[in-house]
Amino acid sequence: MDKSTVAELNSQHDLYLQEIEGIDDYWGPTFRAIFDSNEEVEFKKKLGERIKHHDKDIERLCNVYYQGFIESVRELLEVRSQANKLNSQVVTLDKQVHDAAQGITKSGSDLLQARKVQSNIAVVIAQLNLCLPVFTTYSKLQKQIAEKRYYPALKTLEELEHLHLPHVANYRFSRQLQENIPKYREKIEAASMSDLKDFLENIRKFSPKIGEVAMRHTSEQLASDPTVVGRKKKRNAPQPPGQFSDEDRSAQELIDFSPIYRGLHIAHVLSRSSTFETYYRAERTKQVRLVLQPPTNMHESEESYRSYIHAVLGFFILEDHVLNTGKGLITRAFLDEMWSMALSKIVTALQTNSSYCTDATLILRIKDLIMLFCTTLRNYGYSVKPLWELVRELRDHYTEVLMQRWVQVFRKILAEEDFQPIKINNQEELNEMLLSFPWEGDLPDNIVYPYSFPFSSMVPKIYREVKEFIYACVKFSEDLNLSQVEVDEMIRKSMNLLLTRTFNGCLSSTFRSPHVNLQEIIQIIVDTGYLEEANVYLDQFISNITGEESRGVTSALAHGQSALFSVSREDAVRQICEKLKQKLNEFFELENYDWLLVEPNGHASSYISDIIAFLQTTFHSFTNIPLEAAQIACKSACDHIAESLFAMLMNEEIKQLSMGALNQLNLDLLQCELFAASEPVQGLQEGSLLSYFEYLREILDLFISWDWPTYFHDYAQETSKYKKVNPDVAIVLLEKLREGDKKTMFTVLKKSERDKKKLLETVLKQLRQLAQIPPGK
Amino acid sequence: MAKTYDYLFKLLLIGDSGVGKTCILFRFSEDAFNTTFISTIGIDFKIRTIDLDGKKIKLQIWDTAGQERFRTITTAYYRGAMGIMLVYDITNEKSFENIKNWIRNIEENASADVEKMLLGNKCELEEKRQVSKERGEQLAIEYGIKFIETSAKASIRVEEAFYTLARDIKAKMEKKLVSKLYTPRGGHQLKASELQKKPTSWLSRCTIL
Ligand SMILES: Nc1nc2c(ncn2[C@@H]2O[C@H](COP(=O)(O)OP(=O)(O)OP(=O)(O)O)[C@@H](O)[C@H]2O)c(=O)[nH]1
Ligand SMILES: [Mg+2]
Description:
Chain A: Keywords: Coiled coil, Exocytosis, Transport. Chain A has 777 residues and is an all-alpha fold. Chain A contains 26 helices and two strands.
């Protein structure tokens, strides 16, 4: 070993020491390193050294710190007592604290509880706030339904459904409500339908009233309309204003239409509009059918017509209102169709019923009703043309009824009439007479009472009645808005009809009465003459009423009028002839010819003389018979006499005839010819009466003068003296003469008689030949 | 033609207007009555056949107008009349007084042997009577004619009046016939109807060839 090696060894050891000292455990590697290097002896020594070193340090240190240790123990003791003291202090304190804390803890837990409750409450409030609208809405809904305010109810329902319920969806009641909503809807729909039904029922009851009010309004409106007043003749004074009652409100105000509107809204909301519409229309269609059904005996009273018309009118006014305000509940087309159907039914109903009516006043009332009906309907925009037509027809019917009424009037007048000239006994009666009839004749300056007018009392009576008739006619055209010309024409036409048909008919049946005598018939003819003259005044009378210019006597119509009574007059004249003929026939029944008379006594038969005297007296006495009538009557009398005489001659029952009888007939014929030539009636053409006897005259002349050669010679010539004598007639007479001869000539067998007989046979033969030839050759 | 009657009597009704002549005739011919007064104009007649003792008698009864203005016309009929009824109205004094005038009229215009009869009409109007029945009877006696009170309205003795007059005419005629038969001048038998015809033949222009 060298010194350096030794040194190096030392340092190595130091390192080990450091490592051991530096590390608490894990000394293994170090010890290994030591044992590896076989230095354990050395190092033991070295370590020993080191331990001794540290011992020494520890000893020194202990020495140093012992004093301090004692000190410290003392101090520690002291601390112990202090600590005890402190400890007791702390225990008390702790006890105190403990007591105090116990109250606090209790309050604390109370507080906690309260807080919890509070928060719970808040939650509940919040939830309730959510529910509350549901309930208020729900109760609102209930209330609205109860009040039948279905539309708001529906709105509320909707609000409930969409706004409120979703917020409370998780509640059970919400679900329940939700489930109930459709039920409510149904209920509302049903209720609104039932409201509609009630409404329909209601308006059905009410619509006549509405019609009535509407009609009244129209008539008031017409009354105050200056353009109409003139025609109405101010009959109905305008109503004093300001006294409109509750009833005078317009139709729409009278009826509460809200069920419809509500129902409509509701239906709309429920989207059931079409159901609602269909229902409404169907119901109304049913109703209109009922309304249009006229009461069974409507024709019996005005009241029935009135209520019928009111009902119809009311119905359509309502419908019109519904059309205008119902937002398409009904359409124009629907209403139009319904109206046109209704119109034809109305027309038919009114037509049928009014045609039964025989009361003119009632017809007038019906007309007024229809007119008012029309005007009112037109105000509502309904077309009424067929109704106008109906009014026209009604007018004809009215005239017809008037005619019938006047037939009674005329019949009564005629039945009560004595057909005697009117006798006036004093001035008063005269004035009255002149007022009642336009008398054109002159009155003497000094009237001696009793004074006779030429006509009978029928004339002023009929005149007055015709005027009454005209008034009655005019009544119909009032308010008809016809032109004056139309009214004028209508009246004139009716009057003409009245006189030509009705009056003439009555007169004719008067003639037919077997009790009417000649005198009365003549008076009737006279009367018709005066009535005809009075026509001018009737004409004027009409013009005054209608304001149309008088047609004047020359116009065509008046011309027709002047012949108004011609039918009656002809009839009357015919009746005169008839009556005369009856009388003549009575005379002829008294005839007592001896057809085998040998020789006449030179006188006309007494019945012929009586006939002639009677005719003369008659034509002489009836100074008032119109000339024309007298002429006709006289001609017809002559014709009848001639015919009767001829018929007697030809009578088959008379088989035998003597020349003497022919001579008697000749005498009688002469009487007749004298009469015919004596101008028993003025103004007849000369020979016109005689012409009726010509035929007989030729026959008698031929037979009495036995002028057969001339007869045969001139036969069929215009100039023939006997041109009228027919061979057949001559044969009949000759045969009768032959038979007559047989009786009287028995004993007379003179040659002249035998020749005569031969001649007769020859003539007969020749006549028979002539008779073979057809007439006109 | 076969005759429908045996005799034809022409009767005449005269008297003031309004006494009821037409009504009496109407009652007799038609058995009816009419209250309305239609004064007759001129003349009218009715025929009724009656039966007397088995004879058919035709009565042609002329009804005259009583009004003064027809006097001339009506008097022309007096001549042919075989019987005349003078009618007054028992309720009208004047019509009774006028009977004298009517009688005078008859005397002037009718044939002398005409049968006459006095009728007091409207006898049912007892309360209005102005002429007593006795006065009527008295007057009739004065003129030697028959008298009957009648009522056309109540149909009292109208038939009787006409039958009486007809019977009297018939009796008178038959008496005349008989007397004619037995007078030497009446050479041949006359038919009743021929009585009316007075034979005057100068007018006749008939000749038998
Ligand atoms: N109470 C009553 N009235 C009668 C009677 N007979 C006639 N009269 C009425 O008297 C009125 C006149 O009757 P007529 O028969 O027309 O008189 P008349 O005599 O023909 O008159 P003239 O034709 O003018 O001459 C009429 O109103 C009749 O009704 C009667 O017996 N009793
Ligand atoms: Mg008379």
